Amino acid sequence: MYYYLYLYIICIEFVLLCFIGFFVLGDRRCGHPAVPPNAKVSLASDTDIVPGTVATYECDDGYELFGAHQRECTLRGDWTSEPPFCGTNVAFRKPANQSTTVRGGSASNGNDGEKTTEHDGKRCTETQREASPWWQVDLLRHYAVKVVRVTTRGCCGHQPLQDLEIRVGNSSSDLQRNPLCAWFPGTIDEGITKTFTCARPLIGQHVFLQLVGVESSLSLCEVEVFTTEEFSNDRCAPIGASADIELAAFSRNCYEFNGAKGASFEEARKQCQEHGGDLIHGFQGATSSYLIQELERRRPNLKTLLVWIGAQKEPGLTSRTWKWVDGETVTKPTWGKDQPNNYNGEQNCVVLDGGRSWLWNDVGCNLDYLHWICQYLPPTCGSPDKLLNTTIEDNDYHVGSSIRYKCPQGHMLIGDKTRECKKDGFWSGAAPSCKYINCGGLTPIQDGSVDLVDGHTTYGAKAIYSCKENYTLVGNAERMCKDQGIWDGEAPKCLFDWCPEPPPVSGATVTTSGHKAGSLATYTCQNGFILFGSPSITCNLGGTWGGTPPSCKYVDCGTPAQVHKGSFRLLNGTTTYGSIAQFTCEPDYWLAGAEVLTCYRDGKWSHDIPSCELISCSDPEVPTGGYMEAYDYNVHSTIDFHCEKGHKLIGEPSLTCQPDGEWSGESPKCEYVDCGKLPPLPYGSAELLNGTTHLGSIIQYSCTTNYRLVGPVRRICTEDFQWSDSSPRCEEIRCPEPIVAENSIVSVTGNDRMHGRTLIRTRSSTQGNTYRIGALVKYRCERGYKVVGESLSTCEDNGQWSGVRPKCQYVDCGNPGRIQNGKVTLATNATYYGAAALYECDEHWQLDGVSRRLCQDNETWSSEAPVCKEITCVDPSIQIKGSIGLLVVTSTLSIGGEAHYRCERGYSLKGNETRTCLPKGQWAGAPPVCIPIDCKSPGTVDNGRVIISNSSTIFGSSIEYHCLPQYQRVGPFLRKCLDDGKWSGEEPKCELITNEAAENGALPLSVGVGCGIVLFLLMLLGVIYLRLRKATPVKNTENIEGAERKEDQNAAVMSYATLHDTNGRHIYDHVTDNLYDSPYGESLAENSAYGRRSDTESAYEPEPTGPNAVVTINGVAVR
């Protein structure tokens, strides 16, 4: 039972607490939520933000939101979570580096914008396995970094990231010197994108990622670094720009890359200006590195490697000052090698030259195929940031506009109330904050009251004080709730405010402004009396006059002393206090001292008695370059001024001292007059006779040779800084237009006014030109005329042409005559001087001599008359000289004749047997050739060998047939090649010898063996001798003949001069050690492998073994 009673009490307390919470917290409201830079927030209501209201955040175009997209107003009157962050990636394609690189995982893969998690194709970074590997990106300038986002590599083949440390700072070498942004002590999953937020924005240029204290490989697929201090590409896009425009933002500038089209310098500038900017200018350092990096990345897509920049100079060969398009002088240009060269004096614009590592090159401004880069700032600022409880009243974010921040009632604005959108696209100052202030209630005052305007006591509230009737408020009537939660000033008081008549004073009168508090009673002394004390008293609160009334006393200064050459007059006729004495002087004298004296309250005149002195003028100013003459400077005196040589007097030459002590005018000045040096006289000279150019100087002129002076010979420097008269000139002495005689033509060379061209004049085309000295006139005559007289004339220094004008005389050479077997044609159908006679022959005839004759000035035709000769072909026997076996017979060498060819015995004809003489004098076709008749190889014989004499099978060659031992030849020993291409006789055979024949050969065999041994020893000696001295092969024809005569007796014939085979090799060079052990055990192919010839080629056989051994030498069998 007690348990249920306890539960009942708990429930009652909970319900009471809920009711209390509803009444206490139900009226709580949230302040307007904070908004980060480059973001906007939307609410259901901007005025009444009750619990449950959701604030939705959205970033400006091109910026990415990190954190909560929505926040909710709680019952406590605050917002859930922290405000989000809107930033743009500033690491994209910036220079990157890492501790090591393996397997194609370069550092630049980590910020190339490709967020794939697969490393295939080398799309991620990768270091080798090492202690504490790291990766770094250079942002090229300082940024306030807030967020770093990392995309890790997917599975597999590497170690996951663990103990990752991210640092942001300005040290590029010592990582640990940079402040820590984030640290992840565990292992990061593979193939994910993880966001790291710095505890506070870190300002730095370098961002490092390192696996601290871990021996591993670092592989990253993408690293993004976000800040609010840079434009997004969307912010940079100009109004009306095409969607494919290439934009980039760096160092708070927008860059537009135009690499798909070309334009001249002015056209490129115009397009940039249409987007609110100009060609890139004023860049250096990090900005220059960034632009070069972007151009290098775009290099494969550029049609030319010349890109305009906004630098140019004034046209001309001598101008060397280069200026940016904004008017600033270029101070640190980065010219390429041998640049600028100002080729042709027209290269007045600058490009980045990709062929010179993007260094500067000067080119002509009218090249209309070059790319360009625009540079400009965005026309608006991003959405401004604001803190909690603040609101922004304006929504115009264009450059030059301002926004105002406002706090809710009871809050004080701390910071800038207004911010301006600056030209750089960012807001001035920082977002202000709002602080809630409550000054509390005020204590009422006695005999008065205090009222609160609108009933508020928070910041900015006003309190107004008031008093009852006949009471005056002493103090401030208004007080305001100020910054520190305190009412400003002190509390006022209410006091009574009526006074009686003021007290009287002897010798004085009194006037009052009233009798209420604050009224004045003013005292004034009578004539001759002096007031001592304050002249007025005040009616104070409480009904009494404040202060002590003044007193009035009588004062007399006495009569002043007389003045020499002067007098005085008492203006009011008395000398008491306040009286005035005025002094004057006689003519030509002036008063030295005070003109008026007043009697002061101490019984003395205000100044000393003045005196009268003779009037004199101050020392006059002596002009520079001059002097003056004077006796004194007293009144009516006169001074005279003079100037030195070369100066002129400006002003009055004399001044007089006037009665007012001033000179009659300003002192004159002596101005130095310099007419200056005159420009050089073309084709002449100017001489200063006195060596000066000041006033009165004289200059004298003279001209060079071939020129005469036109104008004054002398000029004088005058007072108006000009030389007298006008400048003379040196006029060139020229010859008049030459007279053109009848039937003549004149050509003039060396005429400077026509740029050196030759001018041709006829009698009807003269123009009245003049010609310089040295010009040359050449006289020629019209067709049919010759020049009589000197044909050349020169313009001389007297302005006349040299010599006597020639004349033109008519010349006729008459008929040139006829030509046999041809004809003569007059080219112009005339026979006068210069006419041509053309000669040509009839068909099958050719011209011997000139084909063209001219009529000469001696009335004869040039050269001898030609003749026509018959066209023949060259004797064909001359063409076949050196051809072997070829014979030719010709019927005639005239056109149409034939040449018949044949060959000698043993040769066959290849080509045309007959050739015809053509009209051009050449034989048709090419001469034939005679080819030797070849009987070809006769083939092999069974059980024997065929030897080809001299290795030739052509007509007349012979072949021998030899049989192996135990075999005998049946048929001819020798066959010859006949003219029909066949071998003579029948082909012999080698047949086996019967036993009877073998027995009959036993004795010769024994003799042969003995002879063979002797011959073998001789051959060995020959080999030794030939090794020391090579023998010269000699053709051995008689041995063959001897072998033919002694064929039946098996005689052996040997020539010691032919110990070389047919290829020039020694007969023993190719003999191996085992050859004599088995001479017939190897095939012919095996013998060839050792470098030996085949049966048909060999001239030597190795010695055989056996009872019937036979050695053949040069085709002769030796037993």
TrEMBL record:
Entry keyword annotation includes Oxidoreductase: no
Gene3D superfamilies: Complement Module, domain 1 (2.10.70.10), Galactose-binding domain-like (2.60.120.260), Mannose-Binding Protein A, subunit A (3.10.100.10)
Keywords carried by this UniProt record: Calcium, Disulfide bond, Membrane, Metal-binding, Repeat, Signal, Sushi, Transmembrane, Transmembrane helix
Superkingdom of origin: Eukaryota
UniProt cross-references to InterPro entries, sorted A to Z: C-type_lectin-like, C-type_lectin-like/link_sf, C-type_lectin_CS, CTDL_fold, FTP1, Galactose-bd-like_sf, SEZ6_CSMD_C4BPB_Regulators, Sushi/SCR/CCP_sf
Sushi domain mapped to chain residues: 28-88, 379-436, 437-496, 497-554, 555-614, 615-672, 673-732, 733-810, 811-870, 871-932, 933-992
Bias (Polar residues) ranges: 97-111
Stretches the record annotates as Disordered: 97-127, 1086-1107
Molecular function as annotated in GO: metal ion binding
Pfam families the record matches: F5_F8_type_C_2 (PF22633), Lectin_C (PF00059), Sushi (PF00084)
Biased composition (Basic and acidic residues): 112-127
UniProt domain C-type lectin: residue ranges: 250-366
Chain segments annotated as transmembrane: 5-25, 1002-1026
Disulphide connectivity of cysteines: 30-73, 59-86, 407-434, 467-494, 525-552, 585-612, 643-670, 703-730, 781-808, 841-868, 903-930, 963-990
Protein name per its UniProtKB record: Sushi von Willebrand factor type A EGF and pentraxin domain-containing protein 1
Source organism (scientific name): Danaus plexippus plexippus
